Amino acid sequence: MEMVKAGRVGEVRERGRKVLALLGRKVGVFADGDGFFALELTCKHQGADLSAGRVVGGVVTCPRHGWRYELATGRCLDHASAPLRRHALELRGEEIWISLGPVEGGAPGSNR
Ligand code: FES
């Protein structure tokens, strides 16, 4: 699995999130508590940008109509839609690395 550097722990923790473009798609790296998670950013409802969503308790909430998604799994808590695509994430010292492409299953994120 090809991994790419996504940022530093301090910058993502300070802002709560970071947006990247990978293979023409927007991917968000979110910090929540001690964990870091990498997910696609397009809401499954009507395509709103989840990078503007509120993150609380391991869940990101869509800013448009409020659908909620688990950061660890990408699962929608409000509708039986397909989950958000997740990217594998590794902490390498102070650096955050994520898989270039999305993954099925695997490690949901990393805690520090
Ligand atoms: S676009 Fe996200 S809940 Fe409607």
Q: Could you explain the architecture of this structure?
A:
By secondary structure, the chain is mostly beta strands. It has a single domain, classed as Rieske [2Fe-2S] iron-sulphur domain (Rieske Iron-sulfur Protein, 3-layer Sandwich), CATH 2.102.10. It is 6% helix and 43% strand. The protein is built from one helix and eleven strands, in the order βαββββββββββ. The strands form three sheets. Strands 2, 3, 4, 8 and 11 form a five-stranded antiparallel beta sheet that branches. β2 and β3 (25-32) form a beta hairpin. The relative contact order is 0.25. The model has no long low-confidence stretch (mean pLDDT 92). FE2/S2 (inorganic) cluster (FES) is lined by residues 43, 45-46, 48, 62, 64-67.
Q: From the alpha-carbon coordinates, what is the Rg to the nearest angstrom?
A: 13 Å
Distance between the termini: 22 Å
What helical percentage do the residues reach?
under 10%
Range of strand content: 35-45%
Write down the secondary-structure element order: EHEEEEEEEEEE
Provide mean pLDDT, rounded.
92
Number of helices: 1
CATH fold title = Rieske Iron-sulfur Protein
Brief descriptors of the model:
11 strands; binds FE2/S2 (inorganic) cluster; single chain; Rieske Iron-sulfur Protein; 1 helix; mainly beta; 5-stranded antiparallel beta sheet; 112 residues
Write a compact overview of the structure shown.
By secondary structure, this protein is mainly beta. Helix content is 6%, strand content 43%.
Architecture blueprint of SSEs:
Layout: E1 3-8, H1 9-15, E2 17-22, E3 25-32, E4 35-40, E5 54-56, E6 59-61, E7 68-70, E8 86-87, E9 89-92, E10 95-99, E11 110-111
Antiparallel strand pairs: 1-10, 2-3, 3-4, 4-8, 4-11, 5-6, 6-7, 9-10
Bound molecules: FE2/S2 (inorganic) cluster.
FE2/S2 (inorganic) cluster (FES) binds next to loops.
